[in-house]
Amino acid sequence: MALTASTTLNHSAQELTALFADRAFLEHVSSRAGGTLTGLDVSGPTTGAFTSVIERSIPTDRLPDAIRKFVGASLKVTQHESWSAPGADGSRTVDIRVDVAGVPVEVKAVQRLLAQDGHTTVELEGTVSSGIPFLGNKIASAAEPFVGKALKLQSNEASAWLQARS
After folding, report:
1. Which pLDDT tens digits describe the chain residue by residue (166 residues)?
2. Which residues are 92's β-sheet partners?
3. Do residues 64 and 138 lie in contact, with contact meaning Cβ atoms separated by under 8 Å?
4. Residue 155 half-sphere exposure toward CB, CA atoms < 13 A
5. pLDDT of the residue at 83
6. How far apart, in Å, do the first and last CA atoms of the chain sit?
7. How many CA atoms lie within 13 A of 32 on its CB side?
8. What distance in Å separates the CA atoms of residue 39 and residue 51, rounded to the nearest whole number?
9. CB–CB of 144/130 below 8 Å?
10. Cα 67 to the center of its chain, rounded Å
């Protein structure tokens, strides 16, 4: 399943980059999504190229019953991010891979933070796939809308978080 999402925030790409690698913010967003941040490892300063590994526990109560029976009450989701160094205008590219423990679901995406006159457009393009016979397409279809919702939630919370601290 292909996925795309886009939103524009009135903050610089560097502010958003630092925020998207901040433990307190990630704990907050995870909680707002009904999950729990269980791990964060950021390698390198957010002012240059860096990597991050974000681990979350996500409840499955919003998934269809047929899928929930297969995956259980919660999922361990690990998000691997490889951030490019900022371009001359501050724009960035993030290669993202999401692994779901115990479930053969693969999410691969590219997120772009496009700096534009004091605001940033965040674009996400990727794919969700699953190799489970008979249920694979159903699982991928169920996962796809959550990715768009996650970007929207992260963006809304980022704006509120940064405004409250400025």
Report:
1. 677 888 899 999 999 999 999 999 999 999 998 899 999 999 999 999 999 999 999 887 766 676 666 667 778 889 999 999 999 999 999 999 998 887 777 889 999 999 998 899 999 898 888 776 666 676 667 666 666 677 678 888 998 898 888 7
2. 113
3. yes
4. 21
5. 98
6. 39
7. 18
8. 14
9. no
10. 21
Within 10 A of 151 (CB to CB), how many other CB atoms are there? 20
DSSP string, the chain: -EEEEEEEESS-HHHHHHHHT-HHHHHHHHHHTT-EEEEEEEES-TTSSEEEEEEEEEE-TTS-HHHHHHH-SEEEEEEEEEEPPP-TTS-EEEEEEEEETTS-EEEEEEEEEEEETTEEEEEEEEEEEE--TTTHHHHHHHHHHHHHHHHHHHHHHHHHHHHHT-
Strand partners, 115: 120
The amino acid at residue 110 is V
User: Token pair for residue 10?
Assistant: 């009135």
